[in-house]
Amino acid sequence: MFGRDSDGGLIARPSEWNEAEGEAPVVHVKLPRFQKGPVPGVGSRVLAKIFRNAEDEGPLYTARVLKLFDRKSERRALGILRQTANGEWRAEPVERRQPEFLLDAGALGTAKIGDLVEVEPVGRPGYGPPRGRVVMVVGPAVTEKAVSMIAIHAHGIPHEFPPAALDEAAAAKPARLSGREDWRALPFVTIDPADAKDHDDAVHAETDPETPGGFVVRVAIADVAAYVTGGGALDREALKRGNSVYFPDRVVPMLPERISNDLCSLKENVDRPALAFVMKFAADGRKTGHTLHRVMIRSVAKLAYPQAQAAIDGAPDDKTGPLVGTVLKPLYAAYAALERGRRERGPLELDLPERKILLKPDGTVDRVVIPERLAAHRLIEEFMIQANVAAAETLETARQALIYRIHDAPSLAKQEALRGFLKTLSMSLARGAQLRPAQFNSILAEVEGSDLETLVNEVVLRSQSQAEYSKANIGHFGLNLRRYAHFTSPIRRYADLIVHRALISAGKLGDDGLTRAEESRLEEISALISASERRAMAAERETVDRLVAAHLADRVGETFPARVSGVARAGVFVQLTAFGADGFVPVSTLGDDYYIHDEALHAVVGSRTGKGYRLGDSVEVSLTDVQPMAGAMQMKMESEPRPIAGATISFHKSRGPRRRAMSAAMRGRRRK
To answer: 3-state class of 147 per DSSP?
Structure first.
């Protein structure tokens, strides 16, 4: 909230906004007539649901407050410890909205100059900078530990569990077999990243004796609901966090380690409670039926993706060798059938490789790699998708309220923008008929392996809506599924925990299911966890940018290969090929031409030459300035502009800006 309108109503702006899309909109905040608890005011931070108003007059957006963030939780701040010339100790803020703190020499603890420290205000604020004391030394400001801590504070991510939640976790006892089916004789395995510490899911497959060429697939998911009950301290904290947040050096978990890494983790050769689906598939990958079970399992092996893949490719190790014939081959055979069904379903097939930062022992960047995409990854992914579908179908059949994972089709405006862009490439996107992922896939297949592949993948991605959580179902466009609910990761996603409780209620599998109070709040919970997911994504992305900026701080002047990742009136955004981090090339540095942002072409084009830079272009850039703590890198374009096909440069397009520039120059002369 940044102020009030002429009628005294509160007005606000989004706390996060892509400046390339223009100025953040002003939102008028609507408060209920009778407000229980603290009332938001100017300076408050809230989670709100935004509505676009239909009227032509008045505010464009109105917001309904869902949650007021506690100011006490925001009192602490991060800063870099400095000492001024006159001997004063100060904690310089790492975020613009945070104050600078004055520190007494006795309030430094073990902090040294240049350390990133967490500071707590002391005393009542008066004139000048507030006074504070160091409550935690994160370490040197250039390490990944410090960089991820900046993101945690900048986005208000809860990172310390309250005592009540820790006490509840410590008091938890292992679940018993009573009330569960005993599946411990089935050879389940977990297949995860090599560095995974918690294991949500275990899988098992075998041929179906009743269906020629068919398979029975079992997916068992950690029974978190057995330990985290609705309304308890653990539950309140899990909802507050919404999900776990993953940084290169650490995880900010949704649940304490006693729960996430111990009692709920499907450890090797340890009895663990689970909710499970038994799913039957025909030879062509069609699911012919499923059943829900509350069980006790014992995983026979904890495998990493490369380890499982190597075994099936003929290079087993001591652990996977005994499992190849009895466990792994049936899993891969079942996946081959499911893959046939997946191809028939036709989900969106975007090729966007993910980068992973590898760190040195001191916490600084070693290198950035693109992990190989293996069949083992796709196997687990498809098994989880099918289990999520089974969860949604089970709850719908039982008429049990739930939280869906939804993904809307591209808006009409984005569809038209994409059609206009594809037209410049002599490609088309059908009109009229309801859009399907297969139509995008045909476009992507047409450019596969060509110079246009990266460009078209990026533009198609940007045309898509953002997935979110919702009480109301509209289906999942990207996966081409009519009903879909997140069920397979309850250790790290609150949405999955809600679905688990709903399944327990629907299947009458215990007294720890979804309560009436929770059902009445599903819309609010959906909004909260959708916002938490966006917050986590932003924090993870900014951490990568800050870390790479710190890594390149002493390489100003060097040239790097890059790819144009965005264009705006202000300039060109580039992503460094070797590091996956973003930099910015101001339009004023592009050359002696006058560059115009052509939205339809996703390009900046010179008004005189018709040459420029387009989304997806491979370019060379040199590093001119680095601000490590802000994660900002300014670049200079070293590659020459190229002709932009489809660009239409007219006198009228450039006349306005040139006239404004001339007028500004004339005003400057008059002042002189």
So the answer is: helix
Q: Angle of helix 453-463 relative to helix 412-424, nearest 10 degrees? A: 160
CA atoms of 371 and 503, how far apart (whole Å): 35
From the list 300, 297, 374, the residue with the least C-alpha distance to 332 is 374
Concatenating the DSSP letter of every residue in 492-517 gives TBHHHHHHHHHHHHHTT--S-S--HH
Handedness of CA 172, 174, 178, 183 (dihedral sign): positive
- The domains of the chain, with CATH numbers, are 3-69 (no CATH), 73-141 (2.40.50.700), 163-407+470-542 (no CATH), 412-464 (no CATH), 552-663 (2.40.50.140)
What is the per-residue pLDDT across 619-646, written as a single tens digit (0 to 9) for each? Answer: 999 999 988 777 789 999 999 999 987 7
Report the chain's terminal Cα–Cα distance, integer Å: 41
pLDDT attached to residue 366: 82
For 515, counting Cβ atoms within 10 Å of its Cβ (0-12 exposed, 13-18 middle, 19+ buried), the class is middle
Radius of gyration for the chain, computed over Cα atoms and rounded to the nearest angstrom: 27
Side chain identity, residue 243: N
- Please answer whether residues 324 and 215 qualify as being in contact, where contact means their C-beta atoms are separated by less than 8 angstroms: no
Work out the angle between the directed axes of helices 453-463 and 437-447 (0-180°, nearest 10).
160
pLDDT, residue 73, reads 44
d(C-alpha 569, C-alpha 603), whole Å: 10
Using the structure block, give the residue that is written with the tokens 């039926």. Answer: 289
How far is the CA of 301 from the CAs of 306, 319, 334, 575, 599, in angstroms? 14, 8, 19, 39, 52
Q: Which two tokens stand for residue 362?
A: 């001191």
C-alpha 381/C-alpha 386 separation (Å) is 9
Give tens-digit pLDDT for 73-105: 446 788 889 898 889 999 887 765 677 889 998
CA distance 304 to 318: 14
What 3-state DSSP class applies to 229? Answer: coil
Who contacts 592 (Cβ-Cβ below 8 Å, separation ≥6)? Answer: none
Residue 243 is predicted with a pLDDT of 97
Q: Classify burial at 256, counting beta carbons within 10 Å of its beta carbon; exposed 0-12, middle 13-18, buried 19 or more.
A: buried
Can you name the residues that pair with 181 across neighbouring β-strands? 295
Positive or negative, the Cα torsion across 588, 594, 596, 601?
negative
User: Is the CB of residue 604 less than 8 Å from the CB of residue 557?
Assistant: no
Cα separation, 366 vs 363, in Å, equals 9
- State how far the Cα of 568 lies from the Cα of 598, in Å rounded to an integer: 9
CB-based contacts of 332, cutoff 8 Å, min separation 6 = 312, 375, 379
Torsion of the alpha carbons at 364, 368, 374 and 378, rounded to the nearest 10? 80
Please tell me the distance from the alpha carbon of residue 492 to that of residue 243, in angstroms, as a whole number.
5
Per residue in 297-321, pLDDT (tens digit) is 999 999 999 999 999 999 999 999 9
**pLDDT score for 238:** 96
- Backbone φ and ψ of 410, nearest 5°: -55, 140
Percentages helix, strand, coil for the chain (3-state, rounded to 5) are 30, 25, 40
